[in-house]
Fold:
Amino acid sequence: DTAVSQTPKYLVTQMGNDKSIKCEQNLGHDTMYWYKQDSKKFLKIMFSYNNKELIINETVPNRFSPKSPDKAHLNLHINSLELGDSAVYFCASSLTGWKQYFGPGTRLTVT
Amino acid sequence: DQQVKQNSPSLSVQEGRISILNCDYTNSMFDYFLWYKKYPAEGPTFLISISSIKDKNEDGRFTVFLNKSAKHLSLHIVPSQPGDSAVYFCAASAGSGGSNYKLTFGKGTLLTVNP
Structure:
């Protein structure tokens, strides 16, 4: 009964490839997020969707595209992967208010 | 530009003693603050929060103090337990209402509680 799940947990790929990370939440939340934790350990928001509508879009390269097929899912597609994309990506969700529930993270390594 | 700063990358305390984790912020628009705890290979989990209209919020062994004039908040854990060993993230938000709950995180402090 995992609240927020992400697949895959680990992803190793080569530069130039296209990859996707999937996120699902079974909490009935309206809002979902993608965060990136880089090598310096900063956790930075990338995107936020509310009821399938994009509401936060930070300064993220166009190679990153979130897709929300329904309220329970928010997937992250990354095109033309670069070395600098290597990081841990966290999905999160919230109902209303500031309390966000995070998934376990996906460690992306680009070689 | 780090708007939320956790200047101590690590802290080590003895079991049973108090742990004090500090956080400073620069954005005066921040009006809601949260602490998250993170174990290795897991996502952050919510611990406690405080609104800018308060200066203290308590939940069991955890208390968060907010000093708005100093733009400083702290998390107190009393008594500390070995299971509290984790990375603690401070996060802040500028209230905008609606569904735009954007959190700005600090870099985290690794707390180690020694038995």
Observations:
- The mean pLDDT of chain B is 93.
